[in-house]
Automatic annotation (TrEMBL):
Enzymatic reactions: (6S)-NADPHX + ADP = AMP + phosphate + NADPH + H(+); (6S)-NADHX + ADP = AMP + phosphate + NADH + H(+)
Gene that encodes it: nnrD
Function, in words: Catalyzes the dehydration of the S-form of NAD(P)HX at the expense of ADP, which is converted to AMP. Together with NAD(P)HX epimerase, which catalyzes the epimerization of the S- and R-forms, the enzyme allows the repair of both epimers of NAD(P)HX, a damaged form of NAD(P)H that is a result of enzymatic or heat-dependent hydration.
Family: Belongs to the NnrD/CARKD family.
Keywords noted in UniProt: ATP-binding, Lyase, NAD, NADP, Nucleotide-binding
Organism: Methyloradius palustris
Residues binding (6S)-NADPHX, per UniProt: 39, 97, 150, 217
First-tier enzyme category under EC: lyase
SUPFAM superfamilies cross-referenced by the UniProt entry: Ribokinase-like
Amino-acid positions noted as binding AMP in the UniProt annotation, renumbered to this chain: 187-191, 216
EC number(s) recorded for this UniProt protein: 4.2.1.136
Name listed for the protein in its UniProt record: ADP-dependent (S)-NAD(P)H-hydrate dehydratase
Gene Ontology biological process: metabolite repair; nicotinamide nucleotide metabolic process
Cross-referenced Gene3D superfamilies: 3.40.1190.20
């Protein structure tokens, strides 16, 4: 199986002198029911630090903050006060901390009908697993969809135990792709990425310091940010997804190499480190996208 080796593609995200925030994508994140408001905040902070032009969070909780003092750049709304069409996002990430209420289910069905790339995570995956009609809507989507299950969520989707998922991860991701007709990331040690058009690729970076709450929420934000930047910078959703998986894991490795973790590594620290890696590879990648190995070996 091939390892993900797409870092030179980050050269496409190098900032042009006369560009503006609209060139780097508007990310809408939907999630954050009562008690889990932190999850979409982590996704939003990760998206911002990975280069998203704008980040809007639509919370389900009515008690969510109207502004995050530590990150006032993000626009925070209650989901019932906004019109997704007016926001006109370049990419939507749905699921972090969303819960599985009827309201959450209706929102998922609503975004499935939108012609916008989607990142489907956490409780959005649990809702999918519980309702075959939603899988039907997902399969019919024209715009790309990315699913990011951990083995527990993959097990719910495929009606298998965690152990069965882990016993044959390649078969598991192939079954997920077949079931959803979407790009799938099977998270965990050696994350796999596959799509209906692409055989599984493995992420050879990453470490057990990543086994901490919020790390998946950060990955969702990084994927959404790269998809959003890709829209006007020739990076397709497949490449954005596999790059995000690799950068997220490399960022955790880079921090551990500096003595920050593995024990006590936090998800937000990984988001900040992703920023450093994105800039390094965007600046140093060859415009011809060749010789990825050199970039893999040349970490900052
Ligand atoms: N700050 C916050 O508000 C946070 C909220 N979160 C939200 O909490 C909700 C529940 O998500 P969780 O993922 O915690 O709960 P889940 O019940 O979906 O998943 C946890 C279980 O999945 C299995 N699993 C996960 N990774 C595995 C691996 N690598 N190998 C084997 N088994 C594995 C294990 O059985 C584990 O107990 C989601 O909505 C999520 O977004 C979490 O993202 C954590 C942070
Ligand atoms: N032992 C490990 N080795 C490599 N990566 C890991 C390990 N444990 C967790 N990860 C990574 O950390 C992230 C955890 O995501 P997830 O379980 O969804 O967390 P959360 O729901 O708390 O946000 C995934 O990207 C996963 O691949």
């Amino acid at each position: 199986m091939n390892a993900i080796n797409a870092l030179p593609l980050l050269g496409r995200l190098k900032r042009k002198p006369d560009s503006h925030k609209g060139d780097y994508g508007k990310v809408l994140i939907i999630g954050g029911a009562a008690g889990m408001v932190g999850a979409p905040l982590l996704s939003g902070q990760a998206a911002l630090h990975s280069g998203a032009g704008w980040v809007v969070i639509a919370f389900l909780s009515t008690n969510a903050p109207a502004v995050m003092q530590a990150q006032p750049e993000m626009m925070l709304r209650h989901v019932e006060t906004i019109d997704f069409g007016d926001i006109n996002p370049d990419v939507i990430a749905i699921g972090p901390g969303m819960g599985t209420s009827e309201q959450a289910k209706a929102l998922l069905a609503q975004v499935f009908l939108m012609d916008v790339p989607l990142v489907i995570d956490a409780d959005a995956l649990n809702l999918l697993a519980a309702d075959y009609a939603l899988i039907g809507l997902l399969q019919k989507r024209k715009a790309p969809s990315v699913l990011t299950p951990h083995p527990g969520e993959a097990g719910r989707l495929l009606q298998l135990s965690n152990q069965a998922i882990q016993a044959d991860r390649i078969a598991s991701i192939n079954a997920l792709v077949k079931m959803t007709k979407a790009i799938c990331v099977l998270k965990g040690s050696g994350s796999l990425v596959a799509s209906p058009e692409h055989a599984p690729e493995i992420c050879s970076a990453g470490n057990p310091g990543m086994a901490t709450a919020g790390m998946g929420d950060v990955l969702t934000g990084v994927i959404a940010a790269l998809i959003g930047q890709g829209v006007r910078n020739s990076l397709n959703v497949w490449d954005a997804t596999r790059l995000a998986v690799l950068l997220h894991a490399m960022a955790a490795d880079s921090l551990v190499n500096k003595g920050i973790g593995p024990i006590g590594l936090t998800a937000l620290e990984v988001a900040y480190e992703v920023r450093q890696l994105v800039n390094h590879y965007a600046e140093n990648a060859s415009s011809t996208d060749t010789d990825g190995l050199a970039f893999l070996l040349d970490s900052p």
